[in-house]
Amino acid sequence: MKNSPINPDTPDRVLVAIRQIHRAIDLHSRKLIQEHGLTVPQLLVLKEALRHPGSSVGRLAERVQLSQGTVTQILTRLEQRGMLLRTRSDEDRRRVVVTVTPLGVSVLDRAPMPLHDRFLHSFDSLEEWEQTFLLSALQRVARMMGAGGMDVAPLLAPGEIREPGSTETEGEEICDAT
Q1: N or C, which terminus of the chain has less Cβ within 10 Å?
Q2: Domains of the chain, first to last
Q3: How do residues 1-18 score in pLDDT, each as one tens digit?
C-alpha cells in the first residue's frame, strides 16, 4: 500500500520548496552577471586566486572543485577582461601561476557573497543531527528526481550560464557547475 501524506498538500509544498531553491539560485546568478559581469564559477575562481596568490591552474581547479579544463577556460575569460594574469613560474617554467590584477580585486570588492557561502554559513550553525537530516532528505529527493548519480561540483549556480555577449559556455562541466 502506498504511503499517503497526512496532509494532501505536502507533495505540492515539497515541489514549491524545490522550485524556490531553483529560483533563488537562478536570480542570484543572473544578478551577479548583470551587475558584476561574472558567473558564479568565475567569481569563485577569482576569489580563490586572490586568497592564494601565485596558485597554479591545477591547484585552483582543486580548490574550486572544477576540472582543470573548465578552470582554464574561466581563467582565459577573466584574463581577457583584465581581471587576472597568468605567467610562467620563475622556479619552474612549465608551471603557470595566476595573479589577480587591481581590476580583479576591485570587482571582487563590489561582488556579493556567493549564494553557496551564505548557505554554508547557515548550514554550519545547525546542529549535527539537523545537518545529517537535511543531507539525507536532499539526497533522497535527488534520487527521486533521477539526479542522485550526477557528478556535479558543490556550487549553487544554474546550468548553462553564458557570459554577456557570449554564445558558448565555459566547458562541459558548466551545465552542472555554473
Answers
A1: N
A2: 11-114+156-177 (1.10.10.10)
A3: 467 667 888 888 889 999
